Amino acid sequence: MTPITEVEGRRLALTNLEKVVHPATGFTKGELLHYYATTAQALLPHLRDRPMSFLRYPDGPDGQVFFTKNVPPGTPDWVATAEVPRSEGPARMVVIQDLPSLMWAANLVTEFHTPQWRVQAPDEADRLVFDLDPGSPATVVECCEVALWLRERLAADGVETYAKTSGSKGLHLLATVSPTPSPATTDYAKQLAMAAEKAMPRLVVHRMTRSLRPGKVFVDWSQNAARKTTAAPYTLRARAEPSVSAPVTWEEVADCASPDSLVFRAPDIAPRLQAYGDLLAPLLDPARAASLP
Length: 293
Hints:
The chain has 293 residues and is an alpha+beta fold. The chain has six helices and 16 strands. The strands form five sheets. Strands 13-14-10-12-11-16 form a six-stranded mixed beta sheet. The relative contact order is 0.17.
């Protein structure tokens, strides 16, 4: 019998709670749902008003993994949706606005990915992002070195940046910006990625070409494009362990000395929230939005 749970007045069928979805630690779907319920206060503000792309892994990372952008069949009518522009024509996507919607989506077993704009103003970026992706044998240690350079360079333009792990191998840098057309945001990010490569040619590459990336950090500026999305803060990732895209302090970035230094799993997040609060809360403050040069 499928258990029915009431969340803020909404009835939800939560299924297969004993299924293992992160096999390395035996982390179950029930534990995944508990993680999202207890992290919701920090997570929800980062999802609000942003159309949602789901990277689903219902049978774990070794099963079928697939992106869902359109509203999934069977979505309850109380889950918010919005029509958004796409190159192939308008599409309707889910917008996670509250705890019941979050728990419904988490029951699909998914990573949460969002664009750098809100549904009220498609193609007007209010966030700047850099995805620092290490090419083996480079690791997150090298990503941290690049992140510190980018932080200083962005500060020179009046842009305050914040960091989180990707939940995979790398690091994400984020900043709040005044509404800016996505092409202009993308161009600015590309110029900084090129500047980083010029300053650190042995360490940084700004082009996606895989043959250029071994031993270097790819500064992915392209996720600022309107059609692109980035893993949301606090999302679990479709990996063998329940790794999380976790906000980190700049002190942690500066002190990163080994690839394991910035690995955070679901059980780590509640203590971090208790100790630090939401380290990315400043991204939600419009008064901190920077105007790009």
